[in-house]
Amino acid sequence: MVLVSIGSFLAPLLEVTFLQELLVLATFAFSFTLWRRLKPARKEALFASCATKPKDGLPVPQKVLKTQEDFTEEEQEHAKTTEKEMQNLLGNGEFTRALNVYRRCERNGLEVLFTEELFTSLVQSGIRVSKLDVVERTLRTMKRIKMKPSLEFWQLTLKMLSSRKHFALCLVAYSIFECHIPVDKVIYSCLINAGLESKQLKRIPDLLKKFSQASLRAKDHILHFRCYVQLGQADDALRLFRRLAPEVTNLMLNLSLHACVNQRDPEAAYALLLEAKEMERHLKEKIVDVVSYNTVLKGFSAAKCSDRCFDCMKDLIDHGLQPNEISLAALMEAEIGEVLLRSTSMGSKLTPGLYKAFLRGLVRANQISKAVALYEAMKEQKVALTDIAVFSVLIKALVDQRDSSKAFELVEDLKAGGLQLDDLLLTHLLEACRHDCNYQLGKKFYQDALDSGVIPSDVTLVTLLKLLGRCAASEEAFQVLKTWESLHKRRPSVIHYTCLMQGCFRSKNYELAWASYQLMLENGIQPDDTTISTMISGMVQGHQWDKVLPLAPLASLATLRLAANKAPEQEMGQLKALMKKASQKGA
Description:
Oligomer: single chain
Number of helices: 32
Helix content: over 70%
């Protein structure tokens, strides 16, 4: 009953509230519609009142800009005081407060009384805090009050804008003061760089013309060449290069070549390169480098001019330069690899140096089959390959590709050419024998290298031990390691002993593995974590618990846990005790 009475009491109140809300919404909708309809009429009336025709045909009076004489002495003194206050605020890094003070003065027209020093501080501070809208507004104010900024102002402002990559604002500043900016190489170099970076290429010719009016040294003309590259004006670049001939630099040459290549005229670029080579004889500094040749090579490569690519590459090597990966990439883009395999006459243009460079490039590009085919083409043309480093690179690539038979053929060619194995090549060959599990051949390579006077390195020893371990020749591996120091005057490291132990475990020779561990200790080599882990894991697999327990105190917690999981009850208790001790020590 109570609930029914409360409901009957609240129903009228809720109905009244709903009606009130509905009335408010209706009033708002009506007011908004009326405002939208009356707004255009109000705008037209406002514009009409602003555009009333003057009486008697007189012109509408314009707002006259005040001059310094139009202000009282009190106002001028106030402007000076305010300027000092703003300078102090800007000096203390309080840019926002200084800007507020400036805007109050601007509303009273006092900006006419401010000096260039204040505007310079405002602009520089605005650039530092990235308030570019304030910087632009300040520049427009300077233009409005007919201030002519000094040379120092423009140099400093444009250098700051350029260093912070505000290139668009550099060009805005030029648009505002275009005719009043001094002709200076620093100023216009900043403006030209801004145009280049922001891709405003239509503005570059005018800026470059004014830049040329400044007093320039020969090196200052590099900016001209950069512009010619972007504008595609190769002829202008060539004319300027030849005009500056006694004082040209490497960068000028490379930019000129780039301009020619961009216009798809590699022949003109190559002609300029040959001209520069001749010019270089009379200069103190070299102006032709591998970048110059690479630029021309890219042009010929894009045009699929294989013959000219060969000529250019041969000229590069004859000039005493070494082709790099970019040079070889340009050759491969020209499909020269395929041409070499098809055309003996074209291959005859290659020098041994170019062959070697191209072989290296093919290997780096993982084109091993093409590298082998090129090597076979060299054999057919009876090109002598006298650099063992090239053999080493090619053999290593074949070993990595698991093509041991071809690698062994190259060894025979190497020996037939009067070359001897070195330590690096021996290591690659031992690795190939390990892949093939060819113990006898590996032993032959190793003995031949020793007989020819090769001193094996630590890496060679590791590879030899891996080969012997793979081929179950653990006894021989043990003897090699035991006599290594006396034969080669080099002490084996813990890595070598660990490698020997792994080979012993591979052939399940646990006694020899233990003997290897004892030999390591006798020679004063301390085991590391890998050694202990290898020994315990191997002995656990062979159930050699009498050898696991002496090693356990040196093992890590993870290794002990692995051993404890497989140990019998008696050894398990001891291992768990050691695990507890190790965990407490770690904590």
